[in-house]
Structure formats: C-alpha cells, structure tokens
C-alpha cells in the first residue's frame, strides 16, 4: 500500500512528523534521551502501552506466584530482604548484592548472571542456583574481553561470598553452574578479600557445590575456592580448570576446615609465584585442615617457578583415597598415571574408555544424585570412575546418552563390528564393554544384560 495524506495531517493533534531538533541530553556521549522541554516529549504514539517496570534500584520482587513470569532481562542491586526468584534469561547485577539472614534467593535456569562491575553476591541467608546439564546457570562478567590475570578489577566480578552465614538457614546449593571471570585480589568484599576467585566460605558449612565448572578465575589464594574456619562444605563432581593464584593454591585454599572433596577434576590451575618463588606451592592447600579427598583427578597444576611444588600440601593420608594425583604415593587406592583425557588441548576432560581412572574410584563415595557433570549415571560398571565425568559405556551411538537410540547400534556392534565402526568412526571400540570384562565388539554377548539394565535404570 502506498502512503497517503489524511485530512489534518501535519497539524495538531496529528504531529506524526514534526521536523524539529529533538534536543537530546548528550548524544556525543551516547545519551539519546530527550531533555526536559524537548519537542519530542509526550508526542509518541500511545497505541502500544508500555508495561510498568520497577524503578531502578528497587529490590528484587518477592517470590510469589504472580512474580514468576519469565522475563528476558532484569537488573538487581542492593539488599534482598524477602524470598526472591531471579527468573530471567539475563540477570544484570548493577551493584553488590546481599541476601539477608533467613532469606532464600533462587536462581532458575537457564540464567546468565552478568556482573556489571567488581560486585559480589554475599549470602547471609540461602542461595539455590540449581541448573541442569542442558541449561547451566552462568555467573560471569559483562566484559570478559577486558579480563586479565593480574590484580586489577577490570573485566571481572567479586565472587559468591559466604561469611559467617548462620547455620539456621536452609542449606545453600550450587549445581550445574559455571563460575568464570571472577577475582579476589584485595579491595573486595568480606574479611578475606584476597581469597577464593569464585567462591569464598568462612565459618559456614551448609553449602554443596556439585557438578559445576570453575574456570578463568583469579585470587591471591585459592584460584577457584577459599574455605576458612569450619567451612565444612561439599565440593562434588566439579571441573576446576584454568584458574589462577597470584600467591598460592591454584585451585582450592583450605584452612581450619573439614570439607568433602569428591570426584572433582582439578587440572591446569596455575600459581604465579614469580614475585615470591621460594614458597611451597600447590594446587590444594590444607592448613590445619582435614579435607576428605576421594575419587579426584589432581594433576598438572603448576607454578611459574618450581620450588618444592606438589599438587597437595599438608593433606592427611588417612583421608586421601582413590584419587589420581600427580607425584603422590600409590597407596590407599590412589594412583599416579596419565588420566587419558579425550582432548585437553580443546578443554575436553572426558575420560577415554581405556583411561586408568575408569572403574578405579570408591563406590562408598558416589557423588550426590548419582550423576556426573554431563548428567550421565554414575557407576555404569563395577566401580565409579575418578573425576568429574563417568565414561558412558553402552553409548554405542556416541550421542552422549545411554538410551533407546543405542539399541540398533548395539545390535550392529555385536553382530557386525566392522560395520558399526564404519557408521560410528569416532566412537571408541571399548564403548560397548558394559560389563567390564575386557572383551568388546562382535560376539561380546555378555554385555547384553548389563546393557539392558543400563537402559532401564534411573
């Protein structure tokens, strides 16, 4: 349809085109709002009503059924004084946030919690950030391109902080989250601003962190986590990789505490000790602490300058069993061997089926929920695997799941192994050895019943 004029066009009240200077606030600095007295003020079309929004700086809405609608973006600063749910695709944190004692903050997946400056999330109450393997909750910065491995506070946020949180609160839980680009290098929140790049816990035990990814965080002490004074938390099934300590403890700093550290993959966390090279550097530091270390892979966490370096410092052998630890005595179920990751150069820390970590863990410490970092079932065969990932034996179509889509490929695997390899060339040949007897491929019929059991197990 061609445009046409109508009676009265160009005169009041039909100023559809006014042709005047809009008198913007400061366009050269990117502020395109009309200034007071601008001819553009009150001349917009009112056919479409603008939905009401809370004023900037208002506290987050309480968690009531009427406040649970999905919104694309919300902004959250200040104190949270009532039970609240962050239910949005993007949560923009525009100031330090404190969850008050007795209050529950729930974050729903898939949310990206994006800190707009060096702000922290301080939890005096309860934090429930529970994602899923397919919809993780991401805690990150709004400027990852500005992030540097140094003491600066540019391009980063200031972590999740639990400082003397009261035990009377509902326990906090982080699951299937990603925590990245956070720093604790002094000048931040809490009594220990130098500790715990992503998470700091002091004087509090009611926290479980499971199946999360810690990456690209920096702290003076504890590149990923700082646990201090009865921080008897549970770190279960996490991938802790590529974090940095400017002083010591590339991954976890633990003092005066008794945490459970189970089935984590802790690799490639660096200590930048060039300014203080003559310290006993480590990945996991334990000072008057007794962490229970079981089923972990702890390797290749190295300093810039090697001097009396070890993966663990002052751990207790009585509480250290069934781990793969570089340069650690092979006793108590512990091993020291190349874990045979699929492709660590591309940050793929899944285990290859022939890894020495497969079936080498302790079933008495099976992770919470019996699921790994991918959401796959644990203990597929005789024993749980070490590290954050379980090899999914029986996933013979190699789609990352053991389900009914594997039935026809499994029949082909048993009857025509060469044909199966032609169809699935990237699958490891041992992936169908579900019973763990070392035989696989054509004729390995002993794997049938375990395969069926795997399909029908929860």
Describe the 3D structure.
With 458 residues, the chain is mostly beta strands. It has three domains: 1-50, no CATH class; 71-351; 396-458. It is 5% helix and 29% strand. It is built from three helices and 34 strands. It has helices spanning 407-415, 417-423, 448-456, and strands at 24-26, 31-34, 71-80, 84-86, 88-99, 104-107, 112-115, 121-123, 126-130, 137-141, 160-163, 172-175, 177-180, 183-184, 199-202, 207-210, 213-215, 218-221, 225-228, 234-236, 239-241, 244-248, 252-255, 260-262, 265-267, 270-271, 284-287, 292-294, 297-299, 312-313, 320-321, 324-325, 341-343, 348-351. The protein has a 17-stranded parallel sheet that branches. The chain has a nine-stranded parallel sheet with strand order 4-6-9-12-16-20-24-28-31, with no helix packed on it. A hairpin with a 4-residue loop joins strand 33 (341-343) and strand 34 (348-351).
Overall pLDDT confidence? 88
Oligomer: single chain
Low-confidence stretches: 1-17, 45-70
Shape: globular
Q: Rg, please?
A: 27 Å
**Roughly how many Å apart are the termini?**
60 Å
The percentage of residues in β strands lies in 25-35%
How many β-strand runs? 34
Structural class: mainly beta
- Helix amount: under 10%
Estimate nothing, just give the exact number of structural domains: 3
The major β-sheet equals: 17 strands, parallel
